Amino acid sequence: MGGIEQTTEILLHLSPDEAANLKEGINFLRNKKTGKDYILYKNKSRLRACKNMCKHQGGLFIKDIEDFDGRSVRCTKHNWKLDVSSMKYINPPGSFCQDELVVEMDEGNGLLLLELNPPNPWDSEPRSPEDLAYGEVQVTYLTHACMDLKLGDKRMVFDPWLTGPAFARGWWLLHEPPSDWLERLCRADLIYISHMHSDHLSYPTLKKLAGRRPDIPIYVGNTERPVFWNLNQSGVQLTNIKVVPFGIWQQVDKNLRFMILMDGVHPEMDTCIIVEYKGHKILNTVDCTRPNGGRLPGKVALMMSDFAGGASGFPMTFSGGKFTEEWKAQFIKTERRKLLNYKARLVKDLQPRIYCPFAGYFVESHPSDKYIKETNIKNDPNELNNLIKKNSDVVTWTPRPGATLDLGRMLKDPTDSKGIIEPPEGTKIYKDSWDFGPYLKILNASIEDEIFRHSSWIKEYYTWAGFKDYNLVVRMIETDEDFSPFPGGYDYLVDFLDLSFPKERPSREHPYEEIRSRVDVIRHVVKNGLLWDDLYIGFQTRLQRDPDIYHHLFWNHFQIKLPLTPPNWKTFLVHCE
């Protein structure tokens, strides 16, 4: 182990009004307290920022009067020019790149400029790549975001979701994992789990593993909300979870080390990882929106990332106002294309030797979610790989369950027919049946729980949740499978301004949301103090809102910031007697 833990420093904070007033193109900004200057470039919703300081000799940039595109700035010392849209110096051409700052929205729609320190922690104690023997490093795809890596005589597994659903009952595995998946997990020397979402941290999978190897070392990043915050509640007996600081090499043996990095957009929960064996880096950015604030190692041996989109209830679960089927279809198509282009550009910029799209292989296979399955079109990995190949020399790999990539062979000769060994002829690739029963039974058990015989559970729950002093009124309606009111179910208002539960909407001006939730899932979530991702990302709600505004503070609280321990229902029931 070596180096210092990576930290984040806030350099500039713009209020919501200041953020809203940023103009398209170049914005010169100053932190009045520190006197430091910054440049922020805005292109529609894309924001890039840097310090207003030339890399050459620290001169100040000003508007470049010769620039007609509104993209470049000129240094007052030696006329160096920087294209702020790409963060590359154009005079002298082909010289430097400007160090970027991380741009983040805060909870009230203000803007933060952040600096990661150190920015490129993987550069500490660099190692030169050594030749790899054939078979020495092998990467086998199991399902979704789960890879089984053989690294010399060590084995490492990423994000094992190999059985059961994710997000309550909304996501199921698209691919049939190799039949020996449990043996593979038990053989691992270490497991990395990137974040707490249940398509990466799968308690049904870990329960099977814990039955055989409860002491297997599982590594997670030191996120603000612990990845395993719900371990005790889950009943899964894992005894060797290791929380490691960001940006520090963790030495496994003399040839193998890894480093966990945070996400720039969701640092409180998302992480990514660099694994290095004999100087060859494998970069797995998982679900990170801006991994390590957009700064990543270039020219790695193998890069893998998400690609599919569709991992949100928006816009499929929304109705009313603009949310017609035509609007939703067009929005989904546009968003998927944007994501595809973004991933292709990222791969082109980073120039890995090999790229693999993964972590998007899920399907809404429960019959009650037929509408979501048909509407929530996802990106095709082959389409992304073709886009990458068109713009660069990067070798691409669309993984099939059980397929193995031999890194030594592929680095030596990407055309080697033994570089990627496909699963045997006749191997089942796609799942065609899912064991819904046992998982729905667990959810259904919550419907009849005695907590819900007492309507005072509502006040108990939202008091426990701790979200208030926010002008929003929400109507919660418990429903059946088809989102019609559940017979005998609850239908109530919550006024989050004073955390009251009025019989009708208040007379003051207030934003309003109506959330219909399948009764089994909402009661399971309430009873166990779970995060609302099960409802929202799991497609178990239908939403209407007036006005059509995303209430970041509200959703962020219920998706990430709920208390770490569930409501004390035992005490509640005693008081109800």
Can you give a write-up of this model?
By secondary structure, this protein is α+β, with helices and mostly antiparallel strands. The protein has an eight-stranded mixed sheet. Strands 18-19-20-21-22-23-25 form a seven-stranded mixed sheet. The chain has a six-stranded antiparallel sheet with strand order 1-10-9-4-3-2. Helix 5 packs across helix 7. The chain is globular. It starts with 6 loop residues before the first strand and ends with a helix. The model has no long low-confidence stretch (mean pLDDT 94). Its EC number is 1.14.18.2. Keywords: 2Fe-2S, Cytoplasm, Electron transport, Iron, Iron-sulfur, Metal-binding, Oxidoreductase, Transport. Its main location: cytoplasm. It is an enzyme of class 1 (oxidoreductase). GO terms for molecular function: 2 iron, 2 sulfur cluster binding; CMP-N-acetylneuraminate monooxygenase activity; metal ion binding.
Which short descriptors sum up this protein?
eight-stranded mixed sheet, transport, seven-stranded mixed sheet, 577 residues, alpha+beta, single chain, 14 helices, metal-binding, 31 strands
Give a brief outline of the structure.
With 577 residues, the protein is an alpha+beta fold. The chain is 22% helix and 26% strand. Helix 5 packs across helix 7.
Low-confidence blocks of residues: none
Distance between the termini: 56 Å
The dominant shape is: globular
Strand arrangement in the largest pleated sheet: 17-16-15-13-12-11-26-27
The counted number of beta strands is: 31
Mean pLDDT: 94
Helix content: 10-25%
Number of helices: 14
Could you give a short account of the major beta sheet?
8 strands, mixed
Kindly estimate the percentage of residues that lie in beta strands according to DSSP.
Answer: 25-35%
**Cα-based radius of gyration, to the nearest Å:** 25 Å
Oligomer: single chain
* Structural class determined from secondary elements: alpha+beta
